[in-house]
Description:
Blueprint: E1 3-7, E2 10-12, E3 18-25, E4 33-39, E5 46-52, E6 56-59, E7 67-72, E8 77-82, E9 91-103, E10 106-114, E11 118-122
Parallel strand pairs: 2-11
Antiparallel strand pairs: 1-3, 3-8, 4-5, 4-9, 5-6, 7-8, 9-10, 9-11
Amino acid sequence: xxxxxxxxxxxxxxxxxxxxxxxxxxxxxxxxxxxxxxxxxxxxxxxxxxxxxxxxxxxxxxxxxxxxxxxxxxxxxxxxxxxxxxxxxxxxxxxxxxxxxxxxxxxxxxxxxxxxxxxxxxxx
Length: 124
């Protein structure tokens, strides 16, 4: 069973920094893509940033220049360095992976997996 384990959320003051980490387990294949989404109260889940293997990184306009995504494909890990945090960054952040995996007797080239979510609160 493929699982994503996240860590690094918490409470931070405006202008501060946090680093989120996510590690995938349960698959011996390198992920096609890994990234971070977030969902604020009353809002839809949105892409924050992702890394697509062989294709680079993508960022939401609202976090460009403040957040940096990085990862280790060999270890199926992804990190999100968040600087200059704003109150509007407050949300539950979810790790997401598109990863090849064997599910039962079937090889799924693009299994989508979500982490359990970690809360980031930006407040003074």
